Structure formats: C-alpha cells, structure tokens
Amino acid sequence: MQHSLPSSSPRWRWLWNSLGWLWVGLGTAGIFLPVLPTTPFLLLASGCFMRGSPRIANWLHAHPTFGPILTDWYQKRAISRKVKIRATVMILASFTFSIYIVSFVWLKVMLLICLIVLLCWFLRLPETESVAASAENS
Predict the structure, then answer these.
(1) What is the pTM of this model?
(2) Using one digit for the tens of pLDDT, what is the confidence trace for 93-104?
(3) Which residues are bridge partners to 79 per DSSP?
C-alpha cells in the first residue's frame, strides 16, 4: 500500500495555500505597519506555497517587491542592509513600546530578555553585498 505525502492530497494543498495567503497578507501589512515584520511572513508563505502550489511559489519568488527578499534568503542566507536596518528599528520600537505599556516588572524583564536574544541573533545575520559598491563597478 502506497502512502501519499500530506502535501499531495487536495485537502493538504488547500491548507498549505490558505496558510500561504495568510502569511502573504500579514507580510504585506508589515510593509505598512511598523509592528509586523515582512520577511519572516514571506518566508513562511514561500514554504507553504512550495508544498501547496509551486505555481504560486514561483509567482511569489518572481514578485518585484517580495522576490528579492526571498531570493537573498534562499540563495545567500542573507538579507539586505536596508531590510536589516528597517527591521532593527521596528524591533526596537515595538519592544520599547511593549515594555513601556506593560505594568508587571517580571513581564518587562522577560520582554527585555527576548529583545536582547532576538537582536543578538538578528544582527548576526549576514548582509547581501551591494553590487554598486563593489570594485568591479568603480
């Protein structure tokens, strides 16, 4: 008896595609809302679409706004300096606001610890090199 992979049945493809569109929606909102990060949602969407619909995954990777972010991550495991700076500012702003509004000291401490751990990991991610700044273009 042959077992099919979960992503090959119509129900699983529908679930993967639905989750993919949810992540695309949140990633799109993240472009305009400072609290939502765009890149992680796009990576989740890409993974879902790879399982549910390769055609939509290809569209997402070819998208003029989303495609470069995904390509940098999948090919180089890196993000652009612009994305890194913008994300760092948004991470700091959202955590600072959260720490300010919570009333429990233990929760403030936990948020501060999460902020430090997140920034230590995030700031160590490699950055893509700018082609315009390379010696070949001088």
Answers:
(1) 0.66
(2) 888 998 999 999
(3) 127
